[in-house]
Structures are given as C-alpha cells and as structure tokens.
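stuck on whats below:

***
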Amino acid sequence: MIDAGWTAPEVVLEHQSARVLQLRTPELGDSTYLVISGEETAVIDAQRDVERCEAIAGSLGGRIVAVLETHVHNDYLSGGPELARRHSATYLVPRDSGFVGAQTLFEGDEVRVGSCRLRPLFTPGHTAHHLSYSVVFEDQVLAVLSGGSVLVGSVGRSDLISPDQTEGLTRQQYRSAARIGGLSDPVLLGPTHGAGSFCTSSPALDETWTTVGKERERNPAFLIQEEDDFVRQQLAGLGPYPAYYAHMAGTNRSGSRPWPAAAPGELAPAELTGLDREGVLIVDVRPRAQFAQDHPARAINIEIDGPFSAYLGWLFPLETRFALLGSNRQAQEAAAQAARIGADGVIGWAEAARWKESGVPSASHRSIDMAELRSELRAPIASRVIDVRQDQEWWDGHIPGSIHVPIQDLPSRVLDLASWPGTTFVHCASGYRAAIATSLLTAAGADAVHVDGGMREWAQAGGEIAN
C-alpha cells in the first residue's frame, strides 16, 4: 500500500461534548474533518487514503459511525464510500447530488454523533446541492464545517459545473454566505478548501480554519454590500483550474475507487531503458536545481515540494503511465499525491543516482536568476522569453517583449515552440512552473533556460515592466 506521508491532525475545537480535528492535505489545499464525541466519530470530506482517518479515530477511541460529504468533489477522489464500507458506517451525501448507493441529507435532518448532532445547512453556490454541517450540542452551534461555501478570506468558486449555471450559482453563493454569517461569534468555521486549492474563487488566506466573526470582518462575501457587485467581482477574478477536474465528479458519484493496494516498487536500471517507446513518462520529482544539472533525456521535472498532483493531472491524462525518479521518500509521496486524484499509472520508481546505470541518455539545462536574465537579454543573440504564468499574473505586469504561454497550454504548443531557433528563457512567479515548462521544452529539443524568480526579482534587478 502506498505510504501517504501523513501529517498530524490539528485539534481546532475542544468542547466538553466534542472535539473537531482538521486533517490537512497540503498539496491540494484541502482539509478533512473528524468530529469525535464520546466513543463515536463522524468524518466529513474524506480523502481517498482513508487510513489517515482510521488511525486518528482509532487512537482516540472513536468508532466511525458516519461519513459525510459537503458536495461532489472536483479536485480529488473521495474516500467516503470506502471508509463507510470498511466501518459499516452510514454514508451521507447532499440530496439530489447524484451519488450512487448513498443515503441523502437535507436541512431538517440530523446525524447523531455521541452527545452531539450534525445539522445540514443548505448552502448552494460552489455546487448546486452543497451542504455545510453545523456541529450542535444542546442547540448551541459550536462549529460549521463549510466545505466549499465560506472559506478563509474567500468563497468556493462557482464555475465548475457549467457556464450557463455560473452566474446563478454565484448569486446562491452570496446568499449562502449570508446564512453562515448570521451565526454568532465565536462559532468555528472549518472549510474543506483553502490556500493552494484551485476550488477557491480568489486566493484564500494561509490560515486553515477561522471563526464566523473573523470572516465577517474580512471576507468579500460579507464586505461587499450588493449582490450584483459581489457577482461581478467573483466572476472577474476566476482563474483557470486543472484539466483533471473534468473527471473527478463522475467517478465520485459512482462510488470512487479504493486506495491502491500496492506501493510502487523500485525499478532496476535495466527496466528504465525503452520506457519512452513503451509510452511511459519519466517524472523527476527532485528539486529543480538538481534536475537542471543532470537528468534522463526527455524526463519531465515536477518537484514534489509543491502542488505536484495539480500539475501532473493538469498537463497529462490521468491514464498516463509514469515512472518516478527521486528518493524512495520522494517517490512514495509523489505516488500518494497522484493517487489522490486518480492517477494510478505509476509503474515504479528509481533512485536518481542509479538511472545512469541504465544507459538512458542524460541531459541538462542552464538555470539562472532574473538578474542574469536581464544581462543575457542585452546580448546580441537570437533569444526569446516565455512567461508561463496565468492571464491575471501576466496582465499585472510582464517583461517587455516576452511571449505569454500559460503553463496548461504548453503541451499543445511545445513542438512548435521547440522548433524556434535560438535560446528560450522560461519564467513564472517563483521558478516552480518554469521548471516544468523548461523540462517540457528541452524534452522536445529546444535550447531552453530555466529562470528562477518572478517579476519582483526582475524589478529588483532593474528590469522594466510592461502592462
């Protein structure tokens, strides 16, 4: 079984009747919640690697009696059906949301967990059937687990269903937020989506939980007075989201899939030869500086210390077969992140130090900073700069004369871009996305140079900025 590299949960609410624990999945910017009261536990928005939830409940003596979803998830495969099956627990989902083999809930229903109750609150917007769950003790609301409704400094995006429903869902999101905002402080607010998630309508704050009172003071859903103004602002700020989102909802409705039974094994050097011909993509998960110095020719660099799964599922079909390059720890974490979005085609992994024994050709490319880029652009050589940031980032300021190719558009254009003569310098906002893009371009035959840093570093080096 894949080792998911679990992180310890955080106790976000400690009450005489119940504890609420938050279990983070940082690379997706998401949280799962466990409500433990007496000897019973309810799990809300479980990730696919359910052993994390089982370990926490088991260590605290809470038998899992209920597994709930706030909505149909687009950004990960749910572990809800499997967790409920393994513990003979009730699997509960929003009414009319289309899940197969689940019990449905709506406002007016209750789920008993020890001495507490979970009460559904209909909060459509992120999805049409979205529910938040109030944790109630003797009619006192202790917490609201808000899923993709009110987030920390943001709200869930409303354009994931279909374009013709987006405005209507945005209006519903505004009204749903008002319902949650009507609760008294200091009610805990625990959202599923947070910083780093592509399910937020605008960047969420780094805090992973909050209170209703705090959000009334800073969240756009409460600070913008008019609904029409809220709709305009929300729709204007929506960025792109990963391509794999299109596949998640259908799989989750049909019952998802259990966590892979076996961890990826180590590949012998001889097994690395011919992977290209077999349609297997080598994904090097090491830091970009190491990759730049030396890597297998045609390998793609997606660093594990970042939103690995988001870019893996954005740039490559989920059914792609992958071989991972890095340490055992790095490879197991990468395989776990891939599995959380249903990319189960990892055939194995290899130590970075051993791939040369296979005879696979090696490659390298230069990596420079923004000051060096400014210096090199003064030289009379054939060169260009490709900016792989998103549209809003580009409009906020870019290097004069640079070519804008958002990272998700690169695979469809890579052969054309690689055929251009001269040197191609590639940058983003930090170097993470630029490393992916540089590896794609060099694998296609380009003379590409990775640039670390973003526009702040460019300005500090004295570079001009165009808008």
About this structure: The two ends are 50 Å apart (CA to CA). The chain has a mean pLDDT of 95. Residues 10-253 form a domain with the Metallo-beta-lactamase; Chain A fold (CATH 3.60.15.10).
